[in-house]
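A further point concerns the way the authors explain their paired sequence and structure data. Nothing conveys this as quickly as seeing an actual entry. An entry of this sort, consisting of the sequence and the corresponding backbone structure tokens, reads as follows:
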Amino acid sequence: MKDFQSYYGLKNHGIVDSVTLNKLNEVYNSPQLGKRSSDISNIKEKLNRVGFSGILVTDYFGDFTEKRVKEFQSYYGLLNNGIVDELTLTKLNKVYNSPFQYGKRHANTSNIKRKLNNLGYSGITVTDYFGSYTEAKLKEFQRDKGLIVNGIADDVTLNAIENSITKIFIDAGHGGHDPGAVALGLKEKDVVLDIVLAMGQYLSNNFYGVDVSYSRVTDEYIALEDRAKLANNEGSDYFISVHNNKFDGNANGLESYIHQNHSSETANKQKIIHDYLINKMGVRDRGKKKADFNVLRNTNMPAILVEYLFLDYPDENKKLQSSSYRNWLGQITAEAIASAFNLKSK
């Protein structure tokens, strides 16, 4: 009884009071196997339209209709009882009347189209109108993901679209009044910003299914806690913080850091990205390290901090003086991230 009450949003006390009894009678008398009513024809038409098809439209609720109702309930996370109760009917009407289907207009249709284009279901003109080409591309996506192919961007499909996009948050260290390391004519805040912007642009231009966000894109100061907060609020899948090193003029090479209380996924991503960079750059490998850095500690997703060379080591400073080299570092880091997340090349 408590399960029944919880499912239907009633007070969960296990007592069959008048409210519970009324709801029980309502569900018991809802359209289900063996019943006839004019409402059943309408239910069948809607089930056929939203992808649970092949139902003969009559006023009788037979075995096949019950089978389709159960499939509908399972697909949308409802109680699989084959009864078209209030919750089932509400969900059916929501899907059937979705604004995200052929012939309808909605402001958020533009966003759906952008995401489908981003995922490689491309060529969709971004407007608020849901036309036949958009429907065809959405059905292609649904088919590829093993979803019900109905051409409607229902909640299941929208979640699948969202989950198919990898959200990368790129953090350029320091900025504004905080220059970071300074040596031989270079400021860390400027070098890392160039690397970050090149990285983000290369990811967006060369790979499907990636969405890039930044802590900063200009010379401004962002508090450490706010950098992590921005990434968390974005729901990012990965955080990469870009820095340069400085020591005594003799130290050189690249090192990367993850938090000391890291997940296996975080360590795996670090290995892929770190090894890719070392292989491409041909510099001293200073190791895959662990630290309690603020941005690594406060981010909710796997995170890495990369120290790209030493500003006070003359040979590495000379490389970092070159804008083309900084752009290249951004490019190869984008490639490393794409490798870590199995992103598809455009």
Remarks:
- Residues 109-163 form one domain.
- The chain has three domains: 2-96, 109-163, 165-341.
